Amino acid sequence: MPFVETQKTAHPLTLYAATKQANEAMAHSYAHLWQMPVTMFRFFTVYGPWGRPDMALFKFVRAALSGEPIEIYNHGQMARDFTYVTDLVRGIRLLIDVPPVRPARPEEIPPGDSLSPVAPWRIVNIGNSTRVPLMTFVDEIERALGFTVAKNFKEMQKGDVPETWADCSLLQRLTGYRPETGVREGVAAFVAWYRDHYRA
Known about the structure:
By secondary structure, the chain is an alpha/beta fold. It has a single domain (15-197), classed as Rossmann fold. The chain has 6 helices and 8 strands, in the order H-E-E-H-E-E-E-H-E-E-H-E-H-H. The longest helix is centred in the first third of the chain and has 20 residues, at 15-34.
């Protein structure tokens, strides 16, 4: 780590990872057959208002405000590259303006670019490029809520990974943009939204 777009993903270890790899492969085939520019996004632990209710931040805040303990896997020995939703949206918007172009020769592909040598297709990471320990994330939730949350430490879930961390230098090279919302700011914004939306 950090993960780069050019790393091999031919042997996924979970069904979740396999579906992502299959999606990228099918999109590459389509781009090759029809010469349609395709940019594949790899998102890293997206969070923020209107997020998925099954994601950690949503579950943690909902449980905490209900007086229930939060479940922390691998006894807290995990880390994630938490990416605030508005940063993600901005990255996608800017990538629309730089569609991939099939190179005339493979040697024209810049070092570190995931551009395909045979199709107008590339993969781009969108993450905060920061490895944040899970317990630091929990600390920020408690700071935003204003109280200590009860914790239930558990074993690692089958198929989960201990940490993620994105190298987003390709995104920055293509768009000039780098996500920059830190977890303190992002978590506080989510908690404020949650309390307003759910009257909690």
